[in-house]
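Possible regression after last week's pipeline update?

I re-ran a chain I had predicted before the update to compare outputs. Posting the input and the new output here so someone can diff against the archived version. Not blocking, just want to make sure nothing changed silently.
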Amino acid sequence: MRFEDVYITSTGAFFPGAPVDNDAIDRFIAPINAMSLRIKRRILGENGIQTRHYAIDEQGRSLYTCAGLAAQAVRACLGADPEAALRDIDLLAAATSSGDLILPGFANMLQAELQAPAMTTASHHGVCASGMAALQHAALALEHGQHRQAVVATAEFPSRLFKRSRFAPGGYDADFDAHFLRWMLSDGAGAWRLARQPGTGIALKLEHLHLRSFSGELPLCMQAGRAPDGTLWGDYDDFSQADAAGAMLLRQDIRLLPQLFDVATHEYVKLAQAGAIDPSRVDHFLCHYSSERFAPVVRQCLELAQLDIPQERWYSNLRVRGNLGSASIFTMLDDFLRERAPKPGDNILLFVPESGRFTVAFALLKVVDGTAPTREQAAPTLRAAVAPSPIPLPEPPHAADEAAQLPEVARLLRELALIWHDYRSRVWQTTLVRKILDGSVGKPDYVAWMEQWVPQVRQGSLWMRKAADHLTPRYAILRDTVHHHADDEQYDYNVLFEDYRNAGGEVASLDDLRRNPGGEALNAYLHARAAQPDALGLLGAMYIIEGTGQRIVPALLPLLRKRLGFLGRSFSFLAYHGENDVAHLGRWLAAVETALAIGGRAIADEIIEDARHTAALYARQLEMIR
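New output (post-update):
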């Protein structure tokens, strides 16, 4: 979504109390048992956070309200006379996941805290991306002339949920998912002022904003209000029972986090292919990640597609501020402007992935200032005193022209990313996966899935060997690699058939298993292609098939074990598939690079085409499992 007349004219942030380092954290949020202590050491060792802020004292008493934190950030944003500045604001959009009251809306509570005059308010409740949703609401209202100026404010106060008294021995025996976020989240608030004109001095022009939720496809990852057994907090006879059952604790299923980065990375590739984002022209990249452990994951996923942004252009305040949820990107931009002093003409890309139920947000900003002040004048708070003259963003290059100039490996990976993005979405919406996600999956569903999968995996080893045997001398160098992979597939289907039998499958012989029409169509297509000389396009089929094992199966396996654990030793193949497909994909990439070095663009086009057909047929096979 492109914008023409929306500017961020000032920013502000507020962090309660003095910074709390890792040695002092126990005075506020203490480990309560051996498991808690181990989790703390592990999480702090991975996330890179050195200090954070808490709005509670060492006795667990609140020193602020969440609305009070947001009000402090708004005042910092509006400058020396915030009361006078508020009279020019006619829209207040606010976001949080930890408001003070269940209702009314957070924006109304913030307006009251500020004692602001009458204005339009909009409350956005959610997790990390809720702040970006509030930004989109305000930007659209300004762009269409409904309002003149707006304030977007975010605040988080999670320490109230994590204080020692809530996890005291003798109370609810919290599980790992409930302990995890205690060592991740911090308190604080951020605010931005938006206007239809840049005002006096430096401003950030909002060029593009992309906000997309995948909640209709993917499972719940981060939540508060649901007990481990699935009971909702409002369904208990009284609130004490809900609390005793652990329904009021904030939980994160970290096993699902790779799905978030899979979705976010492919959405980024999609935007780049469409010309909405040009990584080569991004001068500063502000990435909201909850742990430094995930930063290399994001980088490595983009390097091969030549969509990476050099490390020196990255900025994060995670180490000193901690993870502030919806307020993270707002406070990050404020800290960035004070520390880095971006120049007029610089492009700033904001990236916010949300793990609640998976939402991805990107925003592209351009630094503008008519008189091009010095870096010292431009730095602190975007409040210089000169008339602006916005520097327009050049039109992005045509996606097809840009792709034509890319090395074939990069072009291929970008195209495959788009195919995978659509395929993944389709798979997550199948009846089978829906049953796994909502817990209604039963033994017959699992057995029916295995009856389709066993012959498919068995045929995989056959069509791979057929393809290897039909390689001409030009591509003979790949023959051993393909045969090696086919050998793995033969082991795979034997393990899978044993799982099928352990789960209660009644078919005694592999030869008696029959695929549904979708599976038959997929099998026929793969064998027909493998019979053709130099069918290197089947590397695209392998990308889809192996990717399913690496990216989708690991997310489903814990849910299957939770619901069907009574099946015992029936999940060996799923566990093996998820763990070993990383190595399989590494082998796949080496084969792709070799094939492209010999056959060039023509082979890349074949790989793309076979990936597209395989994705459609594989999804259809899964859709027909009822």
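Follow-up from reviewer: compared with the archived run. Confidence is low (pLDDT under 50) at residues 372-404. Marking as no regression found.
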